[in-house]
Amino acid sequence: MMSEGTLLSVDNVSIYFKRQGGDLRVVNTISFDVQKGEIVGVVGESGCGKSVTAAAVMGIFPQNAYYEGAIYFEGQRLSALTAEQRRALRGNKMSMIFQEPMTSLNPVLTVGYQIAEVLMVHRGMSKSDAMARATELLADVKIPSPALRIRDYPHQMSGGMRQRVMIAMAIACNPALVLADEPTTALDVTIQAQVLKLLRGIQEKFNMSVVLITHDLGLVSENAGRVAIMYAGRIMESADTATLFKHPVHPYTIGLLNSIPKGRHIPLVPIPGFVPRPDRLPVGCKFSDRCGFVEPRCKEAEPELVEIEKGHFNRCILNATASPGTI
Ligand SMILES: Nc1ncnc2c1ncn2[C@@H]1O[C@H](COP(=O)(O)OP(=O)(O)OP(=O)(O)O)[C@@H](O)[C@H]1O
Ligand SMILES: [Mg+2]
User: Fold this and answer.
1) Which residue puts its alpha carbon closest to atom 26 of ligand 1?
2) Mean pLDDT throughout 274-281?
3) In the Cβ-directed half-sphere of 55, how many Cα atoms lie within 13 Å?
4) What is the pLDDT of residue 1?
């Protein structure tokens, strides 16, 4: 439901890749909203459709992909915009932070120039003004000696610093929405925490909205206000973060929670099996072939996403019979 404070609304979106012999649906009728100033976590294992969803919002789809449904940004339907209007939004009002900065940064340009370029393109700044602002942005993302580091090439920086540069580029135009697609996956654990803390600080300072995409439910617990759990292109469960951690109901969510490292002597319990390929999904519940609580009826029809308490949605028929904590 779109309200006054809604910045982004993904409304019944399905995403397809064109294929001979029938297009392949990789995301199936997902809906979620992002309010102004809110961090929403999108969590799921590899291949569940997180990145293609972000690409749909950003309008950076591969040639062979398309979507059905609607995406609204600031109340505007994105599919109604011209290519030029979309380009003007990207980098300016919405931006994206990618997983691997080495492949998203240009190796032959200094990091300072790459940040400055965003400002020259979107804000029409002169090169010298943009470089001065780029230095400030490097300071904002806590890079020491920014006036010197601005002349570095990406390979002269550590992975953590490159990710900070990516954040500086993403926030250069003070966007309303940042899509952070596994922003810290390539970093080691201590650096991950620092980079997230930085992103969080910037988000609060500028009241930005962030979609935090990750396969790590642990990251979301401290950083997101609401969470959507995705599996095989569907939302399986969504709720505000406190509720989801206190009363998880979907067996997939519980499986993800059990696979978060909790301490040196507490064994991890990974979810057995693998995410099925989008063209080999089981009939009925898409998680049924990996679920420890599967019943024959789970394999008959796919459960609907049902609101089980206010703002808490679940796609599992066991919900009615099992109380949280017993499954
Ligand atoms: N260019 C493409 N052509 C065909 N299929 C694609 C393409 N890009 C992605 N897919 C398929 O779409 C599905 C969703 O992919 P997506 O990259 O969104 O997953 P993800 O949740 O971001 O996974 P990861 O955690 O590995 O980044 C996958 O089955 C993937 O194989
Ligand atoms: Mg991805």
Assistant:
1) 46
2) 91
3) 18
4) 52
